[in-house]
Structure formats: C-alpha cells, structure tokens
Design a protein that fits this description.
Its EC number is 6.1.1.5. Keywords: Aminoacyl-tRNA synthetase, ATP-binding, Cytoplasm, Ligase, Metal-binding, Nucleotide-binding, Protein biosynthesis, Zinc. Monomer. By secondary structure, this protein is an alpha/beta fold. It has four domains: about 170 residues, Isoleucyl-tRNA Synthetase, Domain 1; about 230 residues, HUPs (Rossmann fold); about 220 residues, Alpha-Beta Complex (Isoleucyl-tRNA Synthetase, domain 2); about 90 residues, hypothetical protein PF0899 fold (2-Layer Sandwich). The protein contains 28 helices and 35 strands. Strands 8, 9, 10, 11, 12, 13, 14, 15, 16 and 19 form a ten-stranded mixed sheet that branches. Strands 2-27-28-21 form a four-stranded parallel sheet, sandwiched between helices. The protein has a four-stranded antiparallel sheet with strand order 7-6-20-22. The longest helix is centred in the last third of the chain and has 29 residues. The chain is elongated, with a radius of gyration of 38 Å.
C-alpha cells in the first residue's frame, strides 16, 4: 500500500473567495472607506505633488441616474484614480446644476394639479420650493454615484445654488456688463411656447415632425419687368402660422425664374386657368404636379430682374381683414434662397426666422408683434387674434391648430394654390419635447465681437488638447458661426440678470460699485436678495429707483455652469485647487453645451479657456445600436446592474469599451464583462493562494531567477509602459484588453500551468519554487495596483487579503515600480519561439486526448523534431517541464511525415509517445525511476522533498 503524500504537497491557500458576491461586498468596502476617511487620506498622501484637476461637469439634480451618468462618472473616476496612482495630487470636487426649467416645471406641475396659478405664488416661496426639490435629488444622486465606487469630495460638493456660487455668477455677469459686452437687443431666438421662454442651442434636439405645407400666391402690385404684370409670386412654406407676420419675399438674384400661365387644371385643383405664376425654373414642373395643373412658360428672367417688384399680402382683400394686411410686400435679394425645394421664393416674416430678421433689418422693415409668449396671436393680429400656433393633440403629438384657418382665409382670397403635409426634422425642446418656433423678442446678449470674444475663443480652442482630436474641429466650427450669446430666460428659478436699465436712455447701468453691492448681498442672502431687497440699496445714493427698470429675467443655466470654474477652481471654499482645470470630460453633445459655455465665459473674462484638455465620450445605446427607451423595453438601469452584478462589472464595461464612439450595453454584453471579471478574479485568487506565507527571506534576487521568471518580469515592463501610455491618452480599452489577455493567456494558460508543479511539489528551499513565489508576489502587487482604478472594489479586496490592515488601502498607493533592468527584448523574442514550439507539442497531445490514448499530458513522453532557429531557442531549456510532460525527446532535424505539425510554426513536428514507468504518487509524473527511492511510489525529486520535510 503506497504512502499518503497529500500533506507534503503545497496547495494554494487563501480566504479570497472564488465567488465575488459584489452586491454584498461593495457596500461593506464603501463603509470601510468612509470609516478610514479614504478621500482625506488620499489628499494627505498626495500633498505637495503636481496637481491634476478634473473639473466636474454638473449633472442636473432632478431624477435617478441613468446609464449615461454611470458611464460619465465612472470614466471620470478611472481617470482621477489613474492620475493619483501616477503620482499626482488629485482633488475631485463633484457638482450639480440646480437652476433651470426642468425643476421649475416640476414645481409648476404641482400647482397646476392643485388648480393654482404658479404666477400667483410669491416668487421667493416658489424659488425655495425649487431649491428644496434640487436638494432632495442631490442627496439621492450622491448616494447613487458613491455606490458606483466614485471617489471624491462628496461631503463638500459644489452646487450652482449656494450663496457663494450665485454671488460669483452675478459677479461674472457683471464683468460682461462693465466691459460693454452685455447688451439688450431684439433678435430671433428659439422659443418654447409651452415653457414660455427662449432656449439655448444646447437645449434643443431634433425629431421628426409632421407639418402642413402651403403654396401661396402674392399678387404683384408693382412689376420690375413687363412679364410680371398681373402675375403672382408663389411661395412655399412649412409654417402656415407665420403668414400673418409676412412683410417681404426673398429671391435668389443668380437663379433662373419663369413666368408661367395656367392652361389646364385637374379636378380638385385650386389653380385657375389664366393664372400667371412666378416660379424658380428648376421647380416649376414639380409645382405644377403639386397644384394639379398644366401651364405654359410665357417668360424667363434672372432673379436680379425681380429687384423692385412689390406685391401685396395675400390676405389684404379678405372681407374681415379690416386693413390689417394693407401694406407693401417687397421682393428682396436673399443669399439663403435655394433651388432644391419649394418655389425659389422665401416668404419673409422678420419676427419668425433668423434669415428673415436680418434681411428685414437690412432693408428697414420693422418687426411686427404677431405671436405672444404663450404661442397665441396678439389681439392686434387681424383674422387670427387669440388663436394658438401650437397645441398638443389627443394623440399626444403637437400640431398647428391655426394652419387650417390660415388656409381657409387664403382660399377665401383666392390665393391658396395648393396644400399638403411633410414629415421633416424639426427643433424640439429637450425638456418638454414640444416643437419650437422662431420668435423675435427683446433679450440680453453677450456680443461675440464687441471685445473680440469670438477671436479669443478660437485661439483658446487651438491652445487646447482635444481627445478625440476631431472635437477641436467640431467646437471650432460652432464658435466660428455662432450668433451672439443669448443669456436671458423668462423664468423664475435661476440667478437673475442683475441689471438696471435707465428708463430715459434705455441703456443698462454700468457701475462697478452697484455690481459690488449686488454681489455682496448675494454672498449673504443668495440670489433671492434681488427679489427682497429695496433696489435703492443696490443703486446707492443719488439714484432714484423710479428712473430705472430692474430686470427680472434669469440667466440661461448654461451661463451658470459656464461659471463653475470661477467658484470651484478659483473660489475660497476649496483649498488646493488649480485653475485652469487639467481636464474637462463630458459627452460629445457638450461641444455645444458645457464645453462651449465655459469657453465663452472664461475667454470673455480671462482671455483663455478654463481647461487644458477636453475629453468626450459617446452615448450609450442598446446591444442592437438603438437608443434606449422605456417603450422599447431596452433601458439598462445602473442601479439594477449594481444591485444584481456589482459596480465593478459596470466599471469593467466602461474601461473595456471604446468610449470615443457610442457604446453599447445589454444582457449579453454584461455577461461578457462578467466572464472577463471572473478570469481576473481567478488570477488574483490563484496568486493569493500561491504566495500564502511568503517571507522576505524566501524571495529571490532578479539575477538568480530562471529565464521563465525573467520573461514574466519583462512582460510586466511592457504592460506598465502600455498603462502609462493609456493614462496619457485617456484611452484604456486596448490596454485593458492586453491586461486581460496577460492574465488569461500568459499567466493562467502558460506561466501558472508550467510552475504549478514546482509550486506544489518542490521543496520550499528550491530556487525554482522561491523564484516562482517571488515573481507571483510581484505579480499580485502589480495586478492589485493596476486594477485599482478600474475594478476598485475587487482590487481593494485582494489587497487587503494580501496586506490585512486596519487602515491600509490599495487606493493610497501609486502604480508599482517596475525595474528598468527587467526589460529584456532579446529574451522576449527567444520565448516567443519557445511558446510557438510548445503550441505544436500541446496540439499533438490534445489530439491524443481526444482519441483517448492519454488522459493527462503527464502520461506522454513525445518526440520533438526541431529545425532552424528554434533549436537554439530551446537548447538549454527543459522542454518536458515547459510542455508539462513526464519526458520529452528533442531531435534536431526534419520531422517524419507522420508527425503532428502546425502550418504557422514551420520546422517543428511532434510524434506522440506514451511515458514509460510508474506514476509518482506525489507529482503524478510517469517515470521509470518511480519506486526506486527511499520513499515508496515517488520520483527522486519528490523523495528528496519528503525527506527534507
């Protein structure tokens, strides 16, 4: 009966569980980090280092986090942690955007449901309800962000609604006021009739919308060319509701136009035989089809020949118009007219289009007041007073209820040529989802030209690093063409535009002392002071409040967030901050949002961008590349993923994705991340077990290590270099894939596989075993630290398993110091050949296993035929050890035809053979020597090890 040698084998030993149980583990680690004050400890450890400041773009405080929030904050956390572990002083101050329409809308809804008018509520009371709503959601979102493992100054975040923040925002506005950049002007803006306010470009999104289209005849009164006598200029528009605001027509001076006479009409046509119509030549045939008529061309003329033509409004002679449309409608040259659709004429309503406004102003045409803030026509608008230009239908879709009355009125005047419908991309409010209108209104603007703001911003863009690089072109193109910055919103919840206007001159009061008093009041009382303080206290002695209009519009929230650099990076509330920020990081939509407003604000007040670099990530889609929506049932909730699988799984998804483009997520993708996580965890677990009980005295010097260990250390130098490159480029997915492959292939399937025998069966004094344990300890240290920024919970769990301590954390350390002497490219090239030879051997043995001629590779003693350079590579190596066989015969020369080969490894062949002898009861090798040593049933190596034990 053979002896039991089980107790003499050194099997890995660790309490680190195979099953992570992240949903239970992670909250415990969060509690531990709070208990040891991890963030404060990290700040203390980093004191005196070079600063890295990622300034947080503020999310909006009004709802649970979605998967886009998770992507954004995890990526920020990964970058902050990698920069800390590179040796920087990282101070991350999370923040929130608190003012603005979404919160105000929620509070308004509460009043509407109660049958109350929000405008009857005292403004300070209403604002306080908005403030409390924001505070509630800040607390909820803060807990959800922390649960993702995001480390930062959560006890002292910034918000745009604190007294200090609002005072700074007012002070920043004051700089634009005092230098003459801020002015009040009448310009067309995107207007929400639902929310009753102007919207910024960043608050607009485009959706498909169905519009009524109309072809309208404008009778010519004064003809610039004989062919135009008695003719009608025809326009086509998708906004019938703008017709009451028409004051001119635009044509393209370089285009070819035709005058046609209707010769025949089909049933249902609104055209009349004998009608003379003026149309663009390229679209004349299409207009005939749309109007269900045929015609003959009676004249052709260039657009420039239309100059001087005057029409009258098509509703002039309506029996109920009462002179409301009795004015001239001149034809004007416009460089925005196109030939691809319509009729070649654009009807000009200066109150409802940017091109319309500028063309009208250039020709001295006044802007009529037609549509009120709520989307109804002013009482002075003939025929349509009080009607709405936009309403939500019973089907939930918005439409223009006035389209039909406009068409009926045009038909009554004989000037409706045709009508139809079109589905097209149309601007909508990203909050209410309602279509928008262009509406010329008095607003407060910051000039892009008065003090060279556009030029400063373009230079700042050139001086900024953008990742990906195309972001520079994107934001640059926006700045080059953007109009003046509209700052005013007609709402209650926000920082008021702290301006007094002189009623006699119409000019804003530009007085530094007044602004200083306002800012001081805001510091003490917040921006509510604007509503509660006697304006005389702001204006000072010698000024009568009756002579001034106090402005109660509020600032665009993008101005608020554009100022965050001023009160966070330069403010007094946080010490050890840095201006400008090292990095701004948000979604790619923020080129027109936060990146944009911060750039303009900072360039206008400081002459440069508030950031050195800008990083953008894509949007999150489902696994099929579709936008997530509740109706499709494809929404992935970060809370659900964290609760069932753990935050580390989400974090691996982020770093394993190319976030420079849109990302995808769903059950199958998360399953892949779980598999990746499992392999990483198993690697950590194996290493923890392998180094159990290791002491400094056991560790071996680099010079004494076998080639295999030195090859592993060389691989560490390559991975470390890759990591540092990834940290610089902020692109981690390629490197993380390399790290995963290193664990799964280089370590688990190769190095661990080979060294398992030495680790389990060599005597503890064996140099081979000591070298393996030394390298495995180095590996464990490196992997824990490399994984710390990415799988922050698991890295901490493994670190504490190796270094149990009451107050230590892997997150207090920097990345491992990788010795330069470990780099050995020649050794790496040699072992690349060795591994290629090993692949042929393992391929041959796998065939034997499939054929059931062997069970384990240790039952084999193959003959290896080697030709060429590979012989030199393996000459001094124990290939049986490397191939995990009980023996291996190396034959230099060509392999026999029966040998197993691989096409991509030429010159190598293997003839499988069974191992002869008995199986060692301790190491399981099959050797002739088994049974011929002092201890029964074992080989010589194992007999010696048992004897020493």
């Amino acid at each position: 009966m053979s002896a039991d040698y089980k107790n003499t084998v050194f099997l890995p030993k660790t309490d680190f569980p195979m099953k992570a149980g992240l949903p239970d583990l992670e909250p415990k680690l969060l509690a531990r980090w709070a208990e040891i004050g991890l963030f404060q400890r990290m700040r203390a450890v980093a004191k005196g280092r070079e600063k890295f400041m990622l300034h947080d773009g503020p999310p909006y405080a009004n709802g649970h986090l979605h998967i886009g929030h998770a992507l954004n904050k995890i990526l920020k956390d990964v970058i902050n942690r990698t920069q800390f572990m590179l040796g920087h002083d990282v101070h991350y101050i999370p923040g929130w955007d608190c003012h603005g329409l979404p919160i105000e809308w929620k509070i308004e809804e509460k009043y509407r449901e109660a049958g109350q008018d929000k405008d009857q509520v005292p403004v300070v009371q209403f604002r306080e309800e908005c403030r409390q709503f924001a505070r509630q959601w800040i607390d909820i979102q803060r807990a959800e962000f922390k649960r993702l493992g995001v480390e930062g100054d959560w006890d002292h975040p910034y918000t745009t609604m604190t007294n200090a923040a609002e005072a700074t925002i007012a002070a920043e506005l004051g700089k634009f006021l005092l230098d003459g950049s801020l002015y009040k002007g009448v310009k067309p803006v995107m207007w929400s009739v639902v929310e009753k306010t102007a919207l910024a470009e960043a608050e607009i999104e485009y959706h498909d919308h169905t519009s009524v289209t109309i072809w309208i005849k404008f009778p010519v009164v004064t003809a610039s060319h004989p062919a135009l006598d008695g003719a009608n200029v025809v326009i086509w528009t998708t906004t019938p509701w703008t017709m009451p605001g028409n004051r001119a027509l635009a044509y393209g001076p370089e285009f070819d136009y035709v005058v046609v006479e209707v010769t025949e009409v089909a049933e249902g046509s609104l055209a009349r035989v004998g009608d003379k119509l003026v149309l663009i030549k390229d679209q004349a045939e299409q207009v005939a089809k749309d109007a269900k008529c045929t015609f003959k061309v009676v004249a052709t003329l260039k657009g420039e020949q239309l100059a001087g033509t005057i029409c009258h409004h098509p509703l002039k002679h309506h029996p109920e118009a009462k002179g409301g449309y009795d004015f001239a409608v001149p034809a004007l040259a416009g460089d925005f007219v196109t030939t691809d659709t319509g009729t070649g004429f654009v009807h000009i309503a200066p109150g409802h289009g940017e091109d319309d406004f500028h063309l009208g102003r250039a020709n001295g045409i006044a802007v009529p007041d037609t549509v009120q803030p709520d989307g109804t026509y002013y009482p002075s608008v003939a025929l349509f007073a009080g009607l709405s230009v936009l309403e939500k239908g019973k089907n939930g879709k918005y439409y223009s209820p006035v389209a039909k009355p406009v068409m009926e009125a045009m038909k009554a005047c004989g000037n409706l040529l045709a009508n139809g419908k079109i589905e097209h991309s149309y601007p909508h409010s990203w909050r209410s989802k309602a279509p928008l209108i262009f509406r010329t209104t008095p607003q407060w603007f910051v000039s892009m030209e008065t003090n060279g703001l556009r030029a400063k911003a373009l230079k700042a863009i050139d001086d900024t690093r953008f990742v990906p690089a195309q972001g520079k072109n994107r934001i640059g193109a926006m700045i080059e063409t953007r109009p003046d910055w509209c700052l005013s919103r007609q709402r209650a919840w926000g920082v008021p535009i702290t301006v007094f206007v002189d009623k006699h001159t119409g000019q804003p009061l530009r007085d530094a002392a007044v602004m200083e008093r306002i800012v001081s009041a805001f510091k003490e009382q917040g921006s509510d002071a604007w509503y509660t303080t006697d304006p005389a206290l702001f204006l000072g002695e010698g000024r009568d409040p009756k002579d001034y209009e106090q402005i109660f519009d509020v600032l665009d929230v993008w101005f608020d967030s554009g100022c965050t650099h001023a009160f966070v990076l330069e403010g007094e509330e946080w010490s050890d901050t840095k201006w400008p920020a090292s990095l701004y990081l948000e979604g790619s939509d923020q080129h027109r949002g936060w990146f944009h407003s911060s750039l303009l604000e900072s360039c206008g007040t400081r002459g440069r961008a508030p950031y050195d670099a800008v990083l953008t990530h894509g949007f999150v889609l489902d696994e099929d590349g579709r936008k997530m929506s509740k109706s499709l049932g494809n929404v992935v909730s970060p809370q659900e993923v964290v609760g069932t699988q753990g935050a580390d799984i989400l974090r691996l998804w982020v770093v394993g994705s190319d976030y420079s483009d849109d990302l995808r997520i769903g059950p199958e993708i998360l399953k892949t991340q779980v598999d990746v996580y499992r392999r990483l965890r198993n690697t950590l677990r194996y290493l923890l077990g392998a180094v159990d009980g290791i002491s400094d005295g056991e560790k071996l010097a680099f010079a004494d290590m076998p080639e295999l260990e030195r090859w592993v250390l060389h691989r560490l130098t390559e991975i470390d270099a890759g990591l540092r490159g990834a940290c610089h480029s902020f692109e981690f997915h390629s490197w993380f894939n390399e790290l995963h492959n290193f664990c799964a292939i280089d370590l688990s399937a190769f190095y661990f596989d080979i060294r398992k025998d030495a680790l389990y069966c060599d005597h503890p004094d064996s140099l081979r075993r000591r070298a393996a344990r030394t390298v495995m300890d180095i590996l464990l240290d490196a992997l824990c630290k490399w994984l710390a920024p990415f799988a922050c919970f698991t890295a901490e769990e493994a670190w504490l398993a190796r270094h149990p301590s009451a107050d230590d954390s892997v997150h207090l350390h920097t990345f491992p110091d990788i010795a330069a002497q470990w780099r050995d490219d020649a050794l790496a090239a040699k072992w690349q050949q060795v591994r290629a030879v090993r692949r042929v051997v393992t391929g041959a043995l796998e065939g034997e296993r499939v054929a059931k001629r062997i069970g384990s590779s240790l039952q084999a003693n193959p003959a290896l035929y080697v030709s060429g350079e590979a012989m030199a590579a393996i000459a001094d190596l124990d290939m049986a050890e490397i191939c995990i066989t009980s023996g291996l015969l190396v034959v230099e020369g060509p392999a026999p035809d029966s040998a197993f080969t691989l096409a991509d490894v030429p010159g190598i062949g293997v003839v499988p053979r069974g191992a002869e002898g008995d199986k060692c009861q301790r190491c399981w090798k099959v050797l002739p020597e088994v049974g011929h040593h002092a201890h029964d049933g074992v080989c010589g190596r194992c007999s010696d090890a048992v004897a020493k034990l």
